[in-house]
Design brief:
With 770 residues, the protein is of the alpha/beta class. It has 26 helices and 23 strands.
Length: 770
Amino acid sequence: MQQAYEDIIKKVQRPSRYLGNEVNSIHPPMKGGAETKIALIFPDLYEIGMSHLGLKILYHIINQREDAVAERVFSPDTDYEDLLLKNNLPLASLESSLPLNKFDIVGFTLQYELSYTNILNILKLGGIPLRQAERSHADLSPKVSIGERGNEDMPLIIGGGPCAFNPEPLSDFFDLFVIGDGEEVIHELIDKYRLSKKSGINRKELLFNLSDIEGVYVPSLFSVSYEIDGSIEKVAGFKEGYRSVTKRTIYDLDSSPYPSCQIVPFASLIHDRVSVEIDRGCTHGCRFCQAGIIYRPLRERSPQKVTELLQETLKNTGYEEISLGSLSSGDYRGITPLVESLMNRYEQDRTAISLPSLRPDTLNPEMLREISRVRKTGFTIAVEAGTQRMRDMINKKIREEDIFSAVNAIASSGWDSLKLYFMIGLPRETDDDIEGIYNLCLQILKREKRIKNINVSVSSFVPKSHTPFQWSGQENPEGLKKKMSFLRQRFSAHKRITMKWHNAEMSFLEGVFARGDRRLGRVIERAFETGCKFDGWTERIDFKKWTDAFVECGVSPEFYANREIKRDEILPWEHIKTGVSRKFLYREFERGITPDCRYEGCIGCGLDPSRCKIQDARGKRQETRDKRQDARCKMQDATPARSPVHRRFRIRYEKKGDMKFLSHLEVGRVFSRAFRRAGIPLLYSEGYHPHPRIAFGFALPVGIESSWEYLDAEIGGYLDAEEFVKQLNTKLPIGLKVISAEPVPSGARSISDITDKIIFSVGLQFPFKG
C-alpha cells in the first residue's frame, strides 16, 4: 500500500507536502507497542497546518506514550486528491500511509469556520461515513480486526480548538468535542478509549463514558428544540447531571508539556519558525475578540522556562527565527529583558526574534532595538478602528498618541515599512469611523517621513460566540463592499499606501457559522456535495454554490449572520461554558471603556478570582526593569565568543530516495538547518536580512536523484574535513548524505563558476517476455 502512495507523489506539484519523513517525525515502527492509533488532522494545506502550535503539542504528548501513536493528515491539494481518486486510494497518514478509516481516533483542529467543507472532504476521502449517526452502531469489540473495518467499526471523530466553543453546526458529523485546553484531556480520552475497547462496549456506551471527562461535549447526548420564529426553545441533556459542559483549563504553563523536538518540514511554512507560547489568555477585553474570552484566565510561562524551551528547541530543529507567541506579547511581564537576554544569547547565530501580536501602547524603543539586532522581522499594529470613539466602543484602550509614539519608535529603530490592521462593520459604526481609517494613515505619513510604505489590511467584523458582541448582527455583504470600495478609492491615490481587504462573502459565511446551530449541518453537507472546499481561500470559494445550498435546504443565512439577537434569547452555544458569565458579557455589550484587570483590579467577569494568577502582576513592570541588568550580565557570561577564524568547504553530496522530491530551495533550507543542529557555525551575509553563506551548483529538476552535487559553505572556527562530514551527516535526513568535504583556499573560484555541465544517467527497463 505504501508504494502506491509513493508512486502518486511523483506526479504532484509540491511533493514535499506528502513525504512524511521530515526531521524529528515519529513513525509507527518506533512505537511497536502502540495499541491506540490517532490521526491528528488540520483541515487545510500542509504549510498552514504545520504552522499550528496546538497540533505540534498534541503530536508530542501522544507520542510520549508507549501505548499510543499520533500521525498527521492534512487537506490534500486538488492535484493529489485527483490522483487518490484516480488510483482508488483512500486518504492516508503521512508517517505510515495508514488509511484514515484504520485509525482508532481521528482528531480535527477546528481553527476556522470556513474549513468545515474540508473536514467532510477529508472524511470522505478517508473512507469514513460523514454523519455521526451512520457510525452510531460501531462494534468496538477486539474481535474485529483493524484490517476488516466497515461502517460497524469506524474511528472516533473528535474536534477541538476555538471553533469548538460553538460546535453546533458540526454536531451531525462529530462524535465529541474537547472544549478548552487539550494537554490533560487527551490522556484521559486515550485511557478511557482503551478500557472501553477492551471491554467490548458499543459506541453509544463509549460516548456516554467519555462524557464524564471534564471539558468533553458529546452532542448526541443533547437535543435542541426551536420556536416558531426560528430561535431556540430549549437545549436539553439526556444524561443525568450533564446539562452543560465547562471548558478545560491548564493553569500552570511551566509544567505543561511542550514539544522541544518539533518536526522540521522540508516545505516552507506560513510561519516557518520556532514558536514558544509565553502566555495564554488576555485581559484587555476587546469586545469583538473571542480569544480574549475563551482563553481566560491569563497564564504566563516564566522567563526561565521560555529560555530553557527555546534553547532545547533550537538545538533540535535548527530554525533561524524565534516567535514569542501570545495574544499580546508586549504585555508579558519582563518582555524587554527577556528579548534582550535572548538576543545576547542568539545574536551570534543570526537567530531572529519576532513578536507576532503587539499593541502600540506596549512598544518601546529598547525592545525594538533588541529585536532589530539580527533581522528586522515584520511589525503589525492592530489599530482596529479609525477613530477614538470607535476604539472606545470596542474597548480597544489605545490613544492616537500611543499609535504615533509607536510609529516613531519603529522608524527610529530602522524600520521604513509598517502594517496596520483595521476592521470595518463594527457595531454602531458611522461613516466618520471609516473616513478615520484613511485620515489616520495620512497623519502617520505626515508625521513620520522615515516610513516609506504602509500596508493597510482591512477585514470585516464577524460576531463570535462568547463575546460581548455575540448579540450584534453583522453588516450585510453589500454594505461591507461599499465601505471597502470607499477605502480602496481613497488609498489608490497614495503610492506609499497599499491596501488589502477580506472578501465580504467569506466574512458573511464566517458569521453564519460562528453563530450557527444544528440546522446548518445539512447546508454544509449540501455545499460539500456540490463541490465546495477550501472556502477560506479567496481564489477557490464559490459563493453561488453556498447560496444555492442555503436555498435548497430552506435555511436563511441572514438569520444567523445579520440578525440582532435578543438579550433573553437562548444562544446555540448556551450549554458550552467558558467560565465568563453571560451577565458580564451583556454588561460589556452596553458599556464604554472597561479597565484591564491585569493592572486595575478584578472586573467580575465570572471566573474564580483565586484561579486568576494575575493579581501579583500589577505594579511589577518597574521591578522587571530593575532586574534587566542582572539578566543581561548572566546571559553574556553564558555566551561563548565566536572564533575569528573561518574557512570555506566544498561539499560533495548525494540526494537519494524521497530527497529527490525536494526543490532546490528546499534542499538549501535542509542543509542550512542541519548545519545549525550540528553546531557548525555558518557565516552570514551582512545587512538587514542576513543569509547563510552557502552556494550551490546547478539546480536539478525535482524528482531526479543525484550522486555528485556540490555546495560551498563558509563556517566560523576550525574544523577538519573528516569531523565536518561526520557532524553534518548525523543531522541530515535519510537520503541526503555528504560524501566528501575539502577546504577551499581563499580566492578560489566559486562553485557556480566551475560548474558548467550536468551528466545524466538513464536506466531503461523493458518488460520481460517469457
